[in-house]
Amino acid sequence: MERRLNPKSLNKDKADGGIATRTRSRIANTSTSDAGTKRAASGSASLAQSVSNLAISPGEPTQLGIGDAQLATDFGKIKRWTQTKGNYNGSERAMYDPISSFITYVARHVKARLGSSSDPVDGKDECRLILPVDITDYKPEDADDDTRIDIGLFDMEYNAAIKPYGRASYYRLRGILEAKMRKDEVDNAFVQLYEYTRQMFAEQHNLRSVLGFTACAGDVRLCHFGPSKAVSSEPMDVGTREGRRAFIELLINMSLCDNSQLGRDPTMRYLSELRCWQIDCPDDDDDDGRSGKVAQYYFTNTICIADRLFGRHTRCFLATESRPTKQLEEGQSLEATVVIKDAFAFAKAIGSEDDRDEVKTLKKIREAFHDNNPDDILYPKIVVGGRVKFKRGGQLVEDTTSTIYEGVNDELLAMVSSDSLFRAHRRIVMKSIGEPLRTVKTAKEFVAVICDAMQCHYAIVDKCKILHRDISNNNILVVRMEDGTVRGLLIDFDCAIDISRDKKDVRGEMTGTFPFMSLNNLTCSNVKRTSLDDWESVLYLLCWYATIGFGTSEDRSEVQARLKVLPIAQWRNGTLVTIIDAKRMHLCSLNTFYANIVGRFDQRDTNSEHLGVFALKLYKALFANGKLDSRYHGSEEKKTNPIMAAFLKTQPPSTPVDDDSTNDIDPFEMRSQEWEKISKDLLSVINETKVEMADWEDTAKQLQ
């Protein structure tokens, strides 16, 4: 993940071309058959020429037959910015108006050209105007923090009247421009743009990538944010005619190009006449997705948003196959029958070769359990799913990182198309609707949910040879049944592998969520990954919730205050090295585990004692299993005795010696060789505890 935009590292063509030129070719590449792309290519050159007075000379504009007096007003403001040499002479706030006027000036020319009958543009009904929000330096109403954006950009239909649009939400924005007075403040501008873009991804369900801008004095840069990388163009200096023309053409192309090239997902659309979303879900069961067959669903509620700048951008929607027959009331929700998972997951470029495709994994699980589930295991039931595809220029294309970054920069495209960074847009429809794990109300519910999830985990490993590898608070759902009982559902098999086939992938790869990742996982050790790593994650999950309490939120101030002084906070805060060191120390023995973790469980919970016993039993089965030699207990590697090793070098090879003196012992390595036996012990512990907790609570009710 790049935390800093560095255009020079990705831009090795020529100083005046750069990613800005490459980005324009992405939007206006005549070599493709995409109608929107051709439309941009044919219209941008002539439109740029029509505003060439701005690009060539900062003098007064010609009327060009538009007859709009506002052009002259805009142009007067623009000169204050375009005549900048070096750093901007004035306040940052004073830059907002001339920059907004520049963007509006271009939009008025675009509007005039698209409205002209004498020089028609093909497909202009799909075109748009890119305009600045009227209010600058403001906090969007749907922001999750107090940051303020400098200039928001939105779009509107080209034939609508241009009028002020104030305080647009992140949900409404097409992009954001961050301004700075000094040319050397570009890094600060990038950092702020990162945060704004993250919130755009969070609020817009159909956003695949984002275009944004920085304007440091007269240097404008285009920034492109996708699931894998963020890149910036070389600066377009509006103090020069070449720089002004480049910025103008970019704004024009944003007005004329296809919607998908601005980052929108054409397979997901909001139906304003019904007040709900419509989403196309690929149905790859019959032909592996070659035909582009889809099933349409409708949703109003989201249970997971893409609130990170990079990564899978996972979103989950509660949906139904039934299209509403009339407009929903304000705030009314559709009754959901399925959950839809939408994510950009790591994949192989050729779908048929992608053995770690979650869709294939879920179909394998479905085949194993559909007619053979005597233990009533609650497992994720896939309905349909596959890679998202959409039409571009009459051709069906897969939505991948290559599709998103195509044309931005050749070096970048090669990078995101490599096996290590390539992502495919997958969409999966599943039955069994659940709630987040944080919604459990009691310790009894928590244990029941965890037990169900790990029963499922054990059965999937046993029957399907599939290892989950990402047990966390986000991947176990609470399912409330009609009879009032509570069950647990294990979800999200993005990181799962087939352990009977993926011999290379069971070592060394880091997967999961930091606070709940096993030590093997955190250290990327060469120890083979087994189900014991997932069981270790369950232990961490239990300890975390038993510490913060049930029926509460870890974001609450009193919980945060308690966590600050507890050792368990070290599992989440700090560097990777400090997290590893903390877990090793806390798990090195039963006593240290109790002293640092179990003894700090939330004592306000009447079941804290039972939860503590549960945690200690899990620890003993996993880290101090009586079936294994004590040398293989704990979390610390046993090192060779250096004195004994030096002595043995002077002795004959036949000298008898204890193995402990001559060989390093990694307890994780030794336990991984016995993972099947240990897993059975762990499953027994979790099932016994579920029964014990239920009996204890029933007895308590009788005594009351």
List keywords for this structure.
disordered N terminus, 704 residues, disordered C terminus, seven-stranded antiparallel sheet, seven-stranded mixed sheet, alpha+beta
| Amount of helix | 25-40%
Large-scale geometry: globular
Note the total helix count. Answer: 22
**Overall radius of gyration:** 29 Å
Strand content is 15-25%
Residue stretches low in confidence (pLDDT < 50, at least 5 long) are: 1-33, 52-67, 698-704
Count all strands and give the number: 21
Mean pLDDT: 81
Cα-to-Cα separation, first versus last residue = 56 Å
Global structural class = alpha+beta
Major sheet summary line: 7 strands, mixed
What does this molecule look like?
This protein is α+β, with helices and mostly antiparallel strands and 704 residues long. The chain has 22 helices and 21 strands. Strands 1, 2, 3, 4, 5, 6 and 7 form a seven-stranded mixed β-sheet that branches. Strands 8-9-10-11-12-16-13 form a seven-stranded antiparallel β-sheet, covered by helices on one side. Strands 17-19-20 form a three-stranded antiparallel β-sheet. A hairpin with a 2-residue loop joins strand 14 (389-392) and strand 15 (395-398). Mean pLDDT is 81; it is low at 1-33, 52-67 and 698-704.
